[in-house]
Design a protein that fits this description.
By secondary structure, the protein is an alpha/beta fold. The chain folds into two domains: 141 residues, Roll (Thiol Ester Dehydrase, Chain A); 299 residues, Isopropylmalate Dehydrogenase, CATH 3.40.718.10. The protein has 13 helices and 19 strands. The radius of gyration is 28 Å and the shape is globular. Strands 11-10-9-12-19-18-13-14-17-15-16 form an eleven-stranded mixed sheet, with helices on both faces. The two termini are 27 Å apart. The C terminus is likely disordered.
Length: 472
């Protein structure tokens, strides 16, 4: 877009210009960073006045700053500099409001000074948010500029996890056998989820170590059932037994090796087998992506064969449905997007796609082989000439092996600032698998994912939150 200014000589009284701008939650975070004003009144989802409701009030000077966009871009346009600006704040704008910003020339003065009436109104009802007067130095020379391609900004919020935690909130806490929460990180994650009413923890392990971990956290665990176990193997066996007794509807890994927990789950007599392979699913909240991104398998199956990959895909689809993705789009990853007989993963991908087409994998759209770029980027898919409902839109990525999945998940975490929730699927109940490096957000999200999945299986799943531009 070419922007052309009006010089002082070209301007006339009555000249008018306007633009519209949607106020988003991200705008409020960016302004808080830039200004240093961290008032909770202006930060989405915080209650800044104690009335029990978040306000998300747009800071008045953020609203006022929109006037400079009209002055600097349109009228008078490039080359304009402020002399002064007055504001009368008549009402408040909030995240989600669409605003009309307008200026009108009211007078010209010596020294290239121009006076303009300035207004900001809410589009939906015409309500005046602010008015005032700007005095600016109009451009001296005629200028034309291409619209500036600014560097992108990415606000590192995890809106998908926030939404899942809110959606799981109204559910009854899911009774969860927490195996060996014998150090502060693992115990803290379970207690945090209990405080958010996502789980009702049954703490299984060495009572002395669990109490010491609670003391280190400054937490009172007297309200939670504590079940003694002498060893981690015994704790895992007791957790599985609680599921069979109907006392637990989920398992949660504490401070023990994953193999020790899964050994009890996989026992042929008394375990929690279902006929499907156990598979791990990362639910990743990647800032900037329009939906959660699921990755499987990155933690259990090292080099899965085709039969195992069928279960990996089906388990991932089932979990995607539980967290609110209506018809999950599954991209089967390989190094290429065409079948290459020398690349086994491309052959497996083609077979899995055909199996889904014939109804042997249900609940989602499956396509492959797809390379990473054309699985998640629509332009990349179009460049390669790939015509697919999945290519460029994948919400589930099925990787060739554990190495690639683990690297992909950690790259997203440490480079793209994603948070990852981890759940093991394929057993009679979901297994919450958290890492010592997980933060509170990831731990809460893992519990929320498990609660939503169990609620879907039991027919108790609440409707997804409606998408709103204000929330994003």
């Amino acid at each position: 877009m070419i922007r052309e200014n009006k010089t002082h000589d070209e301007l006339a009284v009555g000249d008018h210009a306007e633009l519209t701008r949607l106020c988003t939650a991200d705008d409020l975070y960016v302004f808080a960073h830039a200004s240093g004003n961290h008032s909770p009144l202006h930060l989405p989802e915080l209650d800044g006045d104690g009335d029990g409701q978040p306000e998300a009030v747009a800071p008045s000077l953020w609203v006022g700053s929109l006037i400079s966009a009209v002055l600097g871009n349109i009228l008078p346009g490039p080359g304009t500099l402020y002399h002064s600006q007055s504001f009368n704040f008549r009402d408040r704008a909030h995240a989600g409001d669409e605003l009309r910003v307008s200026v009108r020339v009211t007078g010209k003065e010596a020294g290239r000074l121009v006076r303009l009436d300035t207004r900001v109104e809410r589009v939906s009802d015409g309500r005046l948010i602010l008015d005032g007067e700007a005095r600016v130095f109009a451009p001296e020379r005629k200028l034309r500029f291409d619209d500036v391609d600014l560097p992108g900004l990415l606000v590192q919020r995890h809106v998908h996890f926030d939404r899942m935690v809110r959606r799981a909130g109204p559910l009854a806490p899911i009774p969860t056998a927490v195996v060996a929460p014998e150090e502060p990180n693992s115990l803290g994650g379970a207690l945090l989820a209990a405080e958010e009413t996502l789980i009702a923890p049954l703490l299984i392990g060495d009572p002395a170590r669990i109490r010491a971990a609670a003391e280190a956290l400054g937490k009172d665990i007297s309200g939670h059932e504590l079940i003694a176990a002498r060893t981690h193997a015994e704790a895992a066996a007791l957790a599985v037994a609680l599921v069979h007794e109907g006392r637990a509807r989920a398992l949660m890994k504490g401070h023990l090796h994953t193999d020790e927990l899964l050994a009890a789950v996989l026992r042929r007599d008394g375990g929690l087998r279902t006929g499907r392979r156990l598979t791990h699913v990362f639910v990743m909240d990647v800032p900037g992506l329009p939906s959660p991104l699921l990755i499987s398998d990155a933690a259990i199956n090292i080099a899965p064969d085709l039969e195992t990959k069928v279960d990996i895909v089906q388990n991932a689809i089932d979990l995607a449905l539980s967290i609110g993705i209506d018809e999950p789009k599954v991209g089967i990853l390989s190094a290429v997007e065409t079948v290459n007989l020398k690349i086994p993963s491309s052959i497996d991908a083609a077979i899995l796609s055909k199996m889904a087409e014939r109804g042997q994998i249900r609940g989602g759209l499956v396509d492959g082989p797809l390379a990473m770029d054309n699985a998640i980027d629509l332009d990349a898919a179009r460049t390669k000439g790939i015509k697919s409902l999945v290519a460029g839109r994948a919400e589930v990525l099925v990787v060739p092996n554990l190495d690639s999945g683990n690297m992909l998940a950690k790259e997203l975490t440490f480079i793209a600032h994603a948070e990852g929730a981890g759940v093991v699927m394929g057993a009679q109940v979901p297994i919450i698998l958290t890492s010592r490096s997980d933060g509170d957000e990831a731990r809460l999200a893992s519990c929320a994912v498990a609660a939503l999945h169990q609620a879907r299986l039991s027919g108790e799943l609440p409707a997804p939150e409606p998408e709103t531009r204000a929330a994003e």
